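Hi all, long-time lurker, first post. I run a small reading group and we've been trying to get comfortable going from sequence to structure in the token notation. Rather than ask abstract questions, I figured I'd post a concrete chain and ask someone more experienced to write out its structure so we can walk through it together at our next meeting. Sequence below, copied exactly:
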Amino acid sequence: EVIAKAGLLLMPDGMLRVSIPSEGTLLWALGSRPD
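-- Answer (accepted) --
Happy to help. Here is the structure in token form:
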């Protein structure tokens, strides 16, 4: 429901990116470190 409402607020050429974090995994560690 919240994601659907957020999608309606996007600009016409906007992009909605949604993810469900899984803290403590290797991918979480790699994705959260600074470049």
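A couple of things your group might point at:
Helices lie at 2-8, 26-32.
The chain has one domain: 2-32.
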